[in-house]
Design a protein that fits this description.
Helix 1 packs across helix 2. The protein has 5 helices and 6 strands. The protein has 2 domains: 32 residues; 99 residues. Strand 1 and strand 2 form a beta hairpin. The chain has 149 residues and is of the alpha+beta class. 13% of the residues are buried.
């Protein structure tokens, strides 16, 4: 593993353990050249389905897009990073559980909305109002009323 600080190609593993979520291996490493320490995580490589956009365009699933969308909706809300990570993990489990090679982006958006609804009602409304592209105030009011129940 190449050192992220100096680029030296050899690092030594000092400590290895299973991460808190038991989904990955956490390794503490030390560079042989600059002696700086850093952490790496190993997780199994899985094949996520392609995402089919509304216009028919296909793209690879990107965890970072899901996470950044959720983080934007949750901005200034009392939700921890661990909760967001758990929600993203749950979305990924559902995607893999579908057993499909392709998933419509609308289905992925619905999965994100379900997780946001569990985490924070305000974030859910924020995301849904952008995702569903409301045309008028009545559609937005209906969503707010639904959440208020």
């Amino acid at each position: 593993m190449k050192c992220p600080f100096c680029g030296h190609p050899e690092t030594q593993v000092i400590e290895t353990r299973v991460s808190e979520d038991a989904e990955s291996i956490r390794r503490r490493r030390q560079c042989g050249a600059c002696q700086k320490r850093f952490t790496t995580y190993e997780r199994p490589e899985v094949s996520f389905p392609s995402i089919v956009k509304k216009d028919g365009h296909r793209s690879d699933y990107q965890r970072s897009k899901i996470r950044s969308s959720m983080t934007l909706a949750l901005r200034k809300r009392p939700v921890s990073t661990e909760q967001v990570d758990a929600a993203v993990e749950h979305i990924e489990e559902q995607l893999l559980g579908m057993g499909q090679r392709e998933v419509a982006s609308s289905r992925l958006g619905e999965l994100v909305m379900l997780e946001l609804k569990k985490l924070d009602k305000i974030a859910y409304i924020r995301f849904a109002s952008v995702y569903r592209s409301f045309e008028d105030i009545d559609e937005f009011k209906t969503l707010v009323d639904e959440v208020g129940r």
